[in-house]
Amino acid sequence: QFLTTYRGSLLAERLQANLLSSLAVNQKWQDFMRYYSADFNSAEIQCHLINAKIATGNPAALDETAALWDVGKEQPEACNNLFKRWRVAGKLNQTLVWSRFIKAMNNKKPELGKQMQLLMVEPYAEYAKVFLKVDAKPELLKTHQLFLQQSLPMQQIIANGITKLASKDAKEALKHWEMYEAQQLFGDDMTRDTKLVILKQLVKQGFPEAAQQFISQSYALRETSLVE
Asked: How far from the centroid of its chain's Cα atoms is residue 182's Cα?
């Protein structure tokens, strides 16, 4: 009655969130589905939602777990049982482990990255070692013959290292990026994101003319913050 009378208010939203958590803890999944609404998109509620779907006759909902697991941060404890169930069902693969490793490292969560390393087998275990070496010492990218392999993990290693190198010497990073770009088939998003980091560092390091010349050749790089 309260939710109906005061729908959309702060107190109604707080009541509904607490109610959903309580119903989930007590495994009252039918009631959970009754009170759930798409407005509640926190990771905790989404994990409960998957459990509720499974309990109310939709076992395929377990496949939705991957999107909640594959993030660059720790998820709430409420998700742990769901993640365990998902892994026991054989849904976790090395591609997902590598993806979360990359997201964790990009999000400056090295402890989570180390947890992902423990789940890796070859070749991803070796990729992770190389990633961490280059992350710590991006100057290694100057020896191009060490990074000739054509694969997505290698491209991610290179792109991450170039952005780290750019923070020290943007002109040097740009030179090496262009050499790697000529030999690797980087995806459009990775190419754009890496170039934007390099160009912003060029401006910060006192080379706005070089950055201006570079973005004048590419409409895709005319991001508002960079142009400003």
From this structure: 26
